[in-house]
Amino acid sequence: MLHTRKAAAAVIGLVAALSLTACNGDDNASDSAQAAPTEATATPGSAGASEQAGQSAGASAGTSTGDTGSGKAGICRTDELEVDASDNTTDKTEGVVTVSFKNGGGRDCRIYGFAGVDLKTAQGDTLSVTRNSEKPLSEILADGDSAAFNITFPYNNSGGSGVQLTDLVVTPPNETKSVTLKWPAGSLPVSDGSDSVKLEISPVGKVG
User: What is the CATH number of the domain that holds 161?
Assistant: First the structure.
């Protein structure tokens, strides 16, 4: 059992070695969640400003989606989205947590890019998650439609307690208002950064 920040520092070193920059990773959206979704708590104003192209900053918003003028769907706002997270890990090498956004705003809305993601540890530290190399697609969500993205992380099969994660702070693309969820999966291994599995996220994609 880890009782100091030493383990969290080791994981931060791992994330740095894996190109720790902030937020918005990529991955393909998962179509389903195997575990029961966790309850979300909205946290107004807790995320930073929208990213410039190629830049990430913690739980900040994704890249701008462009014109939302007359006749076009506006961006999906945090308050219109039902946000859930579930553990979709299937092996003991790569862990997968799927975060879904369901449009409950009563209108069509557009979602594009990468969400901002920060992971909170039991030691009180914050790990920002990088984006993968996949290209995002602009998606229109009708009322009731869902989009999702995956967080991949190295599975802790060391036999030790690893670094315990408690919360998942998510900011939808192009938004600055975040939602805090309980982390639904296992711990991260304490590592020197040599793991082949990276801690990163995929772009948001429409489900179904």
Answer: 2.60.40.10
